[in-house]
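Recall that a protein's primary structure is simply its ordered list of amino acids. Everything else, from secondary elements to tertiary packing, is in principle encoded there. The following example makes that idea concrete.
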Amino acid sequence: MTFMTNPTPTSVSSEFAHHLRTALPYLARFRNSLVVVLMDGTLLDSPDSHALEDLALLSQSGLRMLIVLDCAPLVGVELTSHGESRLNEAEQLLPEQELLPKLERICAHAHSRLMMRLATSGTQILPVTGPFVQAERLSSAASGVETCNGKVREICAEQLAPILETGGPVLLPTLAHGEKGRLWWLEAEEVALEAAVRTRAQKLILLQSTVLHWQGDTSTQETKALTANEVRRGMAAHPDWPAVQQRRVLAMAQACERGVERAQWVDGTQDGSLLQELLTSEGAGWMVTDRDYQRVRPARLSDAAEILRILQPEFQQAAVVQRTAECVQQHIERFLVGCVDEEVVGCCELVDYGSESVELAGLAVDEAHRNRGFGRLLVEAGVAQAMRQGRSRMFALTTGSAHVFQYCGFQPATPEQLPEAKRQDYDFQGSGVYLLQLR
């Protein structure tokens, strides 16, 4: 007789469990939150994109959303193919009034396709659209040229609120009526921006068909997170950047300046990029925010398991001293943790050696978040805490993080400069000694 045993957990299942544990807190946090999605119309015809399916999945999970479909690329393709108009990248499309019926037809067809795709991508998804945007004339720089370009006059936030409570996504038009029922063509970026601000959305998401190639400094390229001021400085330094992308990135900055928590640029042609951007700490695109989403805080007892997980690779490489779960839990007050939102991605430990000296030990960062400045943030937070406690010097022993400590002002030292208690209980072979005078 052969007895079957349950297979041992595989690395694949462990990885799945880790991703699920990471994603579920984000899902819980976003439930009933409101986001505005500016969607590139060309994604409707992208064969490799599952962005619509992911939007439907997020809607089913409780995320409320306003969707603005940017039909300008679709309009430009059809009208230019008939020689009737053209796309002016600097000023967007400027169609004459007689083109309005064609604009209405193109936009209505695109909206119908989007609503059908959303409705068939999930269960009990009922997309809604309506005249929730009011417009007015946009003064034309070209004197005497009659256009139907308009600007947003009002987003009907009060009318939208009860509809959003039902859970279905709402599509906002970029063709909107103004006084006397006249129809105006609006820039999708403006509609999305005003909708995000006036409905107090948590996020503005630009779901695009291209990757954003930011022409900023190397530090922002590493983190893919910008402040509104960094966006404006980068745009001023690169006035030749494509005008369409300038408008969209500027809308992201303006949204944050006007109270939206975050604005994110996601390449919708990459499978799963929207889910990765929203449900993981590392994301998949570019973000603009004026809020502190990366921070260092004192560790809590509930962080012990994550601290051990982050330290484990360092244990195996003998880069830090082995710590047991009991040790971490017993001395949890000595640890600082680096977080993205509330996900723990790094840690360090402050070990007291009397009234004068303190050791910064156990510096480690999760592999997925390395080279993003978390090591520096942890060291700087440790130094600040030691100074508040009146310590006169801090020391560290390291085999692979010397550059981080030197960047933070530590100087190479010798074992003889360490406290006697430290010299007695540690083998210094292979470790560099670094010292920082605090006062």
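Confidence is low (pLDDT under 50) at residues 1-5, 77-95, 217-222. The chain is about 35% helix and 25% strand.
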